Amino acid sequence: MGIIEKIKEIEEEMARTQKNKATEYHLGLLKAKLARYRAQLLEPDKKSSGGGTGFDVQKSGDARVALIGFPSVGKSTLLSKVTHTASETAAYEFTTLTAIPGVIEHQGARIQLLDLPGIVEGASQGRGRGRQVVATAKTADLIVMMLDATKSEEQRRLLEIELDAVGIRLNKQKPDVVFKRKTTGGITINTTVKLTKTDEKTIRTILAGYKLHNCDVMIREDITTDEFIDVLIGNRKYVPCLYVYNKIDAISLERMDQLAREDNTVVISCEQDLNLDYLIERMWSDLRLVRVYTKKRGAHPDLDDPVCLRQGATIEDVCNGIHRSLATNFRYALVWGKSSKFSPHAQKVSLTHLVADEDVVSVFTK
Ligand SMILES: Nc1nc2c(ncn2[C@@H]2O[C@H](COP(=O)(O)OP(=O)(O)OP(=O)(O)O)[C@@H](O)[C@H]2O)c(=O)[nH]1
Ligand SMILES: [K+]
Ligand SMILES: [Mg+2]
């Protein structure tokens, strides 16, 4: 039996099993098994399973945004509108057959926008080019899920299932759980909060299912069983997602208003150029780029050309963003702005210092 059939079998068994206290552990085990098979399915370079690697497009610029959606929702139309790259658009499905990168320049940042083929239900299990598309989505700093405002709400949930199946968690934080393997000593589980969505017995069942007999688990958040499995499997990607409803020119004002009020949602019309500037503004802010202005001694900072970095960036990243040799010859840096603990004055810092948006940095070398 192939992996896909095994997955089907487990999914069927889970659907058949009634959810209650008595079946909780069994369901937990099935979930763990399912997650293991899914992971196998996505391992790259397995000839039998067709591989799980994305399209071979070089990352460029300061961040990558991937356009994910069903066929003909208007992904290529968007790319053609907001970048200088043309991507073929047409009224028939699967017009786009590969990944097409374009560049958006906004607030000193260069954002790579990736147009991708449309995906269909079952994409994560190898239908169409879906596997490649969802694998590419994993490499993105932000996913723009494009939806057709004229179609049913169901499309959003279906796409979420496909992304979830490849280990992408949308608009979620990594669960606050510390998991440590040991060689002896058995299992220790500590919790700092009351668990209401799972319990210790389920967690022990799952650990046993993974043949983990010696480990320390520290749970600091009211997690679900699924979230615990995510922590065990480890290679989950937590990616921000913006839901973009296109073709609002073709729906009623009431419907548009309703969609626009949902969380993490922007409504647009590519064809009529409605709200596209706002969409770019939202993409830019959801990427949470950190702009750092560099300043030479005695000169004013260069405010036109910031170094754009991701959240969590350090002075070392700033150095690497300026010049390859800077970090190796680094002596110290002066930082003005939100990350300086003496703000408005400068703080003298080392390579590991975390920078904040709109900091000004001077680097001193040997
Ligand atoms: N009414 C309306 N139609 C649009 C809008 N944007 C795109 N379209 C139409 O939708 C159709 C599909 O557009 P594409 O850009 O090719 O869609 P896609 O998502 O790239 O499609 P695939 O590459 O096949 O997955 C085309 O006929 C477009 O003219 C819009 O804002 N309003
Ligand atoms: K199309
Ligand atoms: Mg297209």
UniProtKB/TrEMBL annotation:
Q: Would you say which domain of life the source belongs to?
A: Eukaryota
GO molecular function: any one? GTPase activity
**Which PROSITE patterns does the UniProt record give?**
G_OBG, GTP1_OBG, TGS
Signal sequence range: none
What InterPro entries is this protein classified in? Beta-grasp_dom_sf (IPR012675), DRG (IPR045001), G_OBG (IPR031167), GTP-bd (IPR006073), GTP-binding_2 (IPR031662), GTP1-OBG_CS (IPR006074), P-loop_NTPase (IPR027417), Small_GTP-bd (IPR005225)
OBG-type G domain residues are 63-288
Ranges for domain TGS = 288-365
Q: Which UniProt keywords apply?
A: GTP-binding, Nucleotide-binding
Q: Which GO terms describe its biological process?
A: positive regulation of cellular response to amino acid starvation
Q: Which Gene3D superfamilies match?
A: 3.10.20.30, 6.10.140.1070
NCBIfam families, per database record = small_GTP
Q: Output the PANTHER family linked to this UniProt entry.
A: DEVELOPMENTALLY-REGULATED GTP-BINDING PROTEIN 2
Annotated protein name in UniProt: Developmentally regulated GTP-binding protein
Q: Give the source species.
A: Gloeophyllum trabeum (strain ATCC 11539 / FP-39264 / Madison 617)
Q: What is the lineage of its organism?
A: Eukaryota, Fungi, Dikarya, Basidiomycota, Agaricomycotina
